[in-house]
Design brief:
- By secondary structure, this protein is mainly α.
- It is elongated, with a radius of gyration of 25 Å.
- It contains 6 helices and no strands.
Length: about 140
């Protein structure tokens, strides 16, 4: 196998000014760096979230094992986020009065769903005001 540094030097020497040619050079450069089995799968990486990312980076359909591994990773991340965000309201803590953006976020933080309609309206007003401020700042 040709040394990677030699291949990089060859690719730099053949570098083209347009992006399409650059993409072709890079694809040719790294084509055999990713280990593939005869049927086209990534050998030891298939069935892992990293294998899924490699499939996606090559603009190809991920195999079933990689899709399942990525779905499992996503599911575990959702469970972790939900467990981290789900908190009990401490005894004696004073609630913010409903009808404000802060109260809306407090409802979400303590998983008090559905959120009070007055809080939803206050949050919508805050978001539209924030979007208008960003538009003015962008000018």
């Amino acid at each position: 196998m040709v040394d990677v540094e030699d291949r990089v030097a060859d690719a730099v020497a053949a570098w083209a000014p347009d992006l399409a040619a650059q993409a072709e050079v890079l694809a040719a450069l790294f084509d055999d760096v990713i280990d593939r089995t005869p049927d086209g799968r990534m050998s030891d990486r298939c069935g892992t979230p990293w294998g899924y990312e490699l499939h996606r980076s090559r603009d190809e359909e991920a195999c079933t094992r990689c899709k399942a591994a990525n779905a499992e990773r996503s599911r575990k991340a959702r469970v972790r986020r939900a467990a981290k965000a789900c908190k009990e309201r401490p005894e004696g803590q004073q609630r913010l009065p409903c009808g404000s953006n802060a109260a809306y976020h407090q409802h979400l933080y303590y998983r008090e769903l559905p959120v009070d309609p007055a809080c939803l309206a206050a949050h919508a007003d805050f978001e539209s005001m924030w979007a208008a401020a960003r538009r003015v700042a962008a000018k």
